[in-house]
Amino acid sequence: MTTHEAPCPTSTSAAESAASLLNFVKSLIKGIASWVQSTADLWAAAALYDALRGLSDAELHKQGFSRDTLVRDVLQSGAHIARG
Fold first, then answer.
1. Which end of the chain is flanked by fewer CB atoms within 10 Å, N or C?
2. Pairwise CA distance, residues 7 & 2, whole Å
3. What is the distance between the alpha carbons of residues 4 and 52, in angstroms, rounded to a whole number?
4. Alpha helices in the chain (DSSP H)
């Protein structure tokens, strides 16, 4: 009669599993942080657009914007404004 020994996890495989889990958690945190930053940038752009859309064409021009391209310009500059 033969007996089969159940494989016993070694400390190396446990360490590898822990490292893998840690890497997954770090990656998840980085992804969430990136999403939060992107959301903050878009909120900043929306606030800037709200402030600028009521200005006259002459006032927009003084600020360096054109009504025709206001949304695009705000989205491009909003990310820089949000980050300082």
1. N
2. 15
3. 75
4. 11-52, 57-62, 70-83
Coil, helix or strand for 5?
coil
Q: What DSSP character marks residue 10?
A: P
* Domain spans in the chain, listed from the N-terminal domain onward: 34-84
Q: What is the pTM of this model?
A: 0.62
Q: Count, in order, helices (H) and strands (E) of the chain.
A: 3, 0
Residue 52 in contact with residue 74, Cβ under 8 Å?
Answer: yes
pLDDT tens-digit series, residues 19-63: 899 999 999 999 999 999 989 888 988 898 999 999 999 999 998
